[in-house]
Amino acid sequence: MKQLLVAATLAGLMSTSVSAADIKITGDFEYSYQDNNSATSTAVDADINIIPSMTLPNGMTVQADININQDGSSDGDNSVTISKDAWAIDLGDTNSALDAIDDVTNWGYVLTNGSPSVNHAGILTLKPVDGLEIHGSFATDSDYASSTKKGYALGGRYNLGPVTVGAAQMWNDDDSKARLLNAKGKIGPIGAGYELHTDTTAAGVDTDTTTISGTFDIGEATMVGVELMKAESAGVTSSDEMTFGIHHTIADGVVAFAEYTNDDKTASEETTAIGITVKF
Questions:
Q1: Tens of pLDDT, residues 72-128
Q2: Domain extents for the chain?
Q3: What are the CA-CA distances from residue 204 to residues 175, 177, 200 (Å)?
Q4: Tens of pLDDT, residues 121-177
Q5: Residue 89's closest CA among 169, 11, 179, 23?
Q6: Of 56, 59, 65, whose CA–CA distance to 24 is shortest?
Q7: Backbone angles phi, psi at 5, to 5 degrees
Q8: 2-279 to CATH, choices 1.10.357.10, 2.40.160.10, 1.10.287.3510, 3.40.50.150
């Protein structure tokens, strides 16, 4: 699969001339004050995204994505994307087919969970009809910026009006696997999400991570949310978290937030985070 992906990409780029690139710079800066069982701390999570893009004479678009964090290091997801009409190929440090559709419950800035993530080395996205996305991704023995296992994944999601459903499966060469099922929707001010992520070891042991979320918009500027997360393996619950939060938009791109989480299985997980984020 990976050979076909790379070969198709290179074939499409042959014998073309390139015009000057358009360069877009985006980013965000997030600051939070955190209290973890009376142990206080502050945290910063920021990055700048440098995105040059070019349109080739054959109509394809080539776009690079270079991400630098607040410390001047790589912020991950550095890749090049070749796209045209209803398809796109992303190569570098990319989403897996699972990551392309996951985290439908992850509304928070600091304390919500979503699903476990695994990056891959390349992903193909197809949009054959309105509302449908299909993804295929691959990983090699040693990928740039990723410690994932060699393997591949397939998945997709479909929009059914107010509800979007998704499913994906990953197969690794060491016989371990991962599966994702999810759904999200919004009607008026009420949003909801559900996600079941199953990791299966080579020995056949499953770890299920289930997340459920709900959000409610108060006017146009304020959102309150809750997320429930439970992780279980062989009938044993290792984590049982509940997270609450409120986000308030001060101005376009500027959001103040407060979030709180606790875990019935791990008392040390009780944390409050208060902060502000700026996106540009």
A1: 998 889 999 999 999 999 999 999 999 999 999 999 999 999 888 889 999 999 999
A2: 2-279
A3: 9, 9, 6
A4: 999 999 999 999 999 999 999 988 776 789 999 999 999 999 999 999 999 999 999
A5: 11
A6: 65
A7: -60, -50
A8: 2.40.160.10
